[in-house]
Description:
Order of helices and strands: HHHHHH
Structural class: mainly alpha
Number of strands: 0
InterPro entries: DUF6197 (IPR045677)
Number of helices: 6
Distance between the termini: 70 Å
Radius of gyration: 26 Å
Pfam families: DUF6197
Amino acid sequence: MDARLALAAVAYEVNTAHIETPPVDWTRIGAPPAPAVLPLTTPPGPDPDTTPVAALLHRASLRLRTDGWCAGTLTDEYGSLCSQGAIRKESGGDRNLEVQAMVVLLEAIRRRFGPHVESVPSFNDSWADGREPTRMLEQASVLADARGV
């Protein structure tokens, strides 16, 4: 196989030797343009004055968007949070409010993915990035707002 590749390379050089090619002007070639960074927009959520659980879940989703998402721990060494860690941080130490938010979040997750989801941490840890956990926090905030909790 190596001999055939070497023969093909020689044949290519012989067949294209007569073609004039201008030298490349490297000064005209710059770095590719940087990708456009979309501004971090606040996703629509419930009115913060409606219900405490809905507001907490909405703030937790915003926290994941700003601080970053992680799996396997409440908070990693870079300050990123998991779903439960974001809820805990935004609850301000109110464990009752945190528990209510976790219950609503688990119900929203089970509505979308089925009853086989055991817990919020297991759901959070099953993803490679934070898009779906963040989206589920938003959906849970809408569910909590609709319920008035």
